[in-house]
């Protein structure tokens, strides 16, 4: 399906105006009977949320800058209803207006996908598990989705690339400025052999709020989430929480009972939010591989 140009313009504009993950944008679209073009007209006439008002007088210039930056970085824009749109995002209470994409957009919706997430300050044990599970799942045709961060995320991406598998990095800022900076080479490799995406327009900087909202994308676009290593306050527990809310399957890898780096995983298992996973084969069993494809089509 090809989105109508005016609808695309509206979604680009709202991706600039609205912070991700709040109810403000979906509520405003609903007030305009689900018509994105009408909602844009209303916003431009000053009838939108107060938080948007300071940005409206230069919004046309901002949209043009987004388009120029997208062209310079060879980005594509993926909209709901497009073949590449991850249909799981439609399950979110506040789905993205669109996705900005660098790399092969077809990867986003052409195979079963699992989120592999965990601590930035990963241990050797955690990195080994991430490597083994990511490579094993890739060899089974599963797309590996993670957040491009240090630690478990980075190892999941690297192992997938090494196994010639498909991987998706979901960023909390614009895809024109890779974050963290120390992963610029890795994220460049992902663009060449996978795909890097964000719901935020080019030029957007990551913030704590945006990291948390990025996690909902990771959870929603996958059929299962595997937490490899997580302390009590790990951001990957936020991803697991989104997955539970979305009724996705969650797995967690146990670690030594003396390791604070695995305390979050142990809590997920103890509280019944996650299945204990000790091998790539067990991780593969988390995937609803036999799900009816007609249901997938119906959700587009």
Write up this protein:
- It is a single chain.
- The chain is of the alpha/beta class.
- It folds into two domains: 1-72, no CATH class; 105-298, Rossmann fold.
- The chain has 13 helices and nine strands.
- It has a nine-stranded mixed beta sheet with strand order 1-2-6-5-4-3-7-8-9, with helices on both faces.
- Helix 7 (152-162) crosses helix 8 and helix 9 crosses helix 10 (236-245).
Number of strands: 9
User: Helical stretch count?
Assistant: 13
State the CATH topology of the largest domain.
Rossmann fold
Largest sheet geometry: 9 strands, mixed
H-E string: HHHHHEEEHEHEHEHEHEHEHH
The largest beta-sheet arranges its strands as 1-2-6-5-4-3-7-8-9
Low-confidence stretches: 290-299
Shape estimate: globular
Helix content: 40-55%
What is the CATH architecture term of the largest domain? 3-Layer(aba) Sandwich
Rg computed from alpha carbons, rounded to a whole number of angstroms: 19 Å
Q: State the oligomer.
A: single chain
How much is the average pLDDT?
Answer: 93
How many domains in all?
A: 2
In brief, what are we looking at here?
This protein is an alpha/beta fold and 300 residues long. The protein is built from 13 helices and 9 strands.
Features of this protein?
single chain; 300 residues; alpha/beta; Rossmann fold; nine-stranded mixed sheet; 42% helix; disordered C terminus
Blueprint of the fold:
Elements: H1 5-17, H2 24-31, H3 36-44, H4 53-56, H5 59-72, E1 76-78, E2 99-103, E3 113-118, H6 124-139, E4 143-146, H7 152-162, E5 167-170, H8 184-193, E6 195-198, H9 208-220, E7 224-229, H10 236-245, E8 249-252, H11 263-270, E9 275-276, H12 280-284, H13 293-298
Parallel strand pairs: 3-4, 3-7, 4-5, 5-6, 7-8, 8-9
Antiparallel strand pairs: 1-2, 2-6
Helix pairs in contact: 1-3, 1-5, 6-7, 7-8, 9-10
């Amino acid at each position: 399906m090809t989105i109508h140009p005016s609808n695309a313009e509206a979604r680009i504009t709202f991706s600039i105006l609205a912070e991700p993950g709040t109810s403000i944008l979906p509520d405003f679209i609903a007030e305009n009977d689900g018509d994105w073009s009408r909602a844009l007209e209303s916003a431009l006439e000053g009838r939108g949320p107060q938080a948007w008002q300071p940005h409206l007088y230069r919004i046309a210039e901002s949209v043009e800058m987004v388009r120029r930056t997208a062209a310079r970085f060879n980005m594509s824009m993926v909209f709901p209803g497009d073949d590449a749109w991850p249909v799981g995002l439609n399950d979110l209470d506040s789905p993205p207006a669109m996705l900005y994409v660098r790399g092969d957009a077809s990867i986003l919706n052409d195979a079963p996908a699992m989120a592999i997430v965990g601590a930035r300050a990963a241990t050797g044990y955690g990195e080994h598990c991430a490597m083994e599970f990511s490579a094993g799942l890739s060899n089974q045709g599963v797309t590996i989705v993670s957040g491009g961060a240090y630690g478990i995320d980075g190892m999941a991406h690297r192992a997938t690339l090494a196994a010639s598998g498909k991987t998706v990095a979901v960023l909390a800022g614009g895809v024109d400025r890779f974050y963290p900076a120390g992963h610029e080479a890795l994220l460049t490799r992902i663009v060449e052999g996978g795909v890097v995406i964000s719901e935020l327009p080019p030029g957007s900087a990551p913030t704590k709020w945006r990291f948390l909202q990025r996690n909902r994308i990771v959870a929603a676009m996958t059929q299962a989430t595997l937490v490899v290593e997580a302390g009590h306050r790990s951001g990957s527990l936020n991803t697991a929480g989104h997955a539970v809310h979305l009724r996705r399957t969650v797995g967690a890898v146990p670690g030594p009972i003396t390791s604070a780096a695995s305390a979050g995983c142990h809590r997920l298992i103890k509280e019944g939010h996650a299945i204990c996973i000790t091998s790539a084969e067990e991780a593969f069993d988390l995937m609803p591989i036999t799900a009816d494809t007609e249901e997938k089509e119906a959700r587009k």
